[in-house]
Specification:
The protein is mainly alpha-helical and about 80 residues long. The protein contains one helix and no strands. The relative contact order is 0.05.
Length: about 80
Amino acid sequence: MSPADAHALTQLAILVIAIGLIALLFVLMARNGQRNRNMDLPEIEEEKPRKRASPPPAKKPETPPWEKDADWWKEND
């Protein structure tokens, strides 16, 4: 067996293992779904979003007079 053949067979084996794992995941998900359906579990109700009062906007902390504003480099039009 030449090194090129070994490389090709190794890649083929890795590809088969990857596809097999994906197929196994799908089979397990399907079995889990059937089991939950057979157990007649109650549906989970989604929570309604609660309306909360937003907190008041935070005041800018007072800075010493020698410090520039954070956006001093922006042009104010």
